[in-house]
Amino acid sequence: MALKGKVALVTGSTSGIGLGIARALAAEGADIAMSGFGDAAAIEALRASIAADFGVLAIYVPADMAVPAEIAAMVTAAAAQLGSVDILVNNAGIQFVSPIETFPDDQWDKVIAVNLSAVFHATKAAIPGMRARGWGRIINIASAHGLVASGQKVAYVAAKHGVVGMTKVTAIEMAGAGTTCNAICPGWVLTPLVEKQLNARAAETGQSIAAVKEAFLAEKQPLHEFSTAEQIGASAVFLCSEGARTITGTSLSVDGGWVIQ
Questions:
Q1: Alpha-carbon span 123 to 29, nearest angstrom
Q2: Can you say whether residue 130 is alpha, beta or left, with left for phi > 0 and alpha for psi between -120 and 50 degrees?
Q3: Pairing mode, if any, of strands 58-60 and 179-186?
Q4: Less CB within 10 Å around the terminal CB: N or C of the chain?
Q5: For residues 168 and 127, what is the distance between their CA atoms, to the nearest angstrom?
Q6: What pLDDT, in 10s, does the model give residues 117-156?
């Protein structure tokens, strides 16, 4: 229970990586503010499950991550209801795939808003409280695509590279204020969204799911193994720990060897 007494706000935590991180932080005793989209009844079930499973407070603070005012209000609401925001995990993200010459302008704006600008707005809202308390942890979920590129993902790659850069600036500005900022850069993570992509590819090609998974991983990762949301959560817990007290401004790759090639 190393995080007992701390409050963690995790964006995009109603599914996938964000939910895995929220549960991992709750397992260490942190009270949790969830944020994300989804069916209201399903979100309430997830919130109640975190509270019951780990004996922590858990609330839901919705926000449209493309709207700066809603992001600031989300941080304010989390602090008002739980007493503070000690840990901010900027996880919410979207994807759109297209060659540059046909990439829709509105999709560029949306991906940049949710994947990059939202990180800025949430961080801006959270750091005054962290500075005042002399302790904080900001964890930005970037991507292997924050360090290297792939075709047809211009907005996503640009946004995630921006997140890595913002992580470094935040770390510099908060040095000496008891607050660290680091990025986690996942490769392929077996989430419901990725499973949907795998099933679609299997249906298109007539291959088995196992064969599709192997081909999917072989495209990028020398270690032919998906990471899990739980493993990303464990990485976030480490970055909040006393052992990571002097780790700041880094990009932690959890990617099966993707970016070492």
A1: 23
A2: alpha
A3: unpaired
A4: C
A5: 15
A6: 999 999 999 999 999 999 999 999 999 999 999 999 999 9
Q: Looking at residues 67-82, what average pLDDT do you find?
A: 98
DSSP 113: I
Going by C-alpha positions, the residue among 80, 87, 62 that lies closest to residue 4 is 87
Residue 38 pLDDT: 95
Residue bearing tokens 């913002």 = 166
Query: Are the CB atoms for 257 and 191 separated by under 8 Å?
Result: no
CATH number of 7-188+227-256: 3.40.50.720
> Could you tell me which of 139, 170, 193 has the C-alpha nearest to residue 24?
139
Beta strands 179-186 and 251-254, pairing class: parallel
Domain ranges of the chain: 7-188+227-256, 190-226
In the structure encoding, which two tokens stand for residue 211, read together? 């064969």
Contacts of 53 (CB under 8 A, 6+ apart): 23, 26
Residue 195 pLDDT grade (very low, low, confident, very high; cuts 50, 70, 90): confident
Active site residues: 156
255: which DSSP letter? S
- 3-class DSSP assignment, residue 28: coil
Question: What is the H or E stretch that residue 33 is in?
Answer: strand 31-34
Cβ density class 174-183: b for 16+ within 10 Å, e for less = beeeebbbbb
d(CA 40, CA 234): 27
In the structure encoding, which two tokens stand for residue 52, read together?
Answer: 């019951």
The pTM score is 0.97
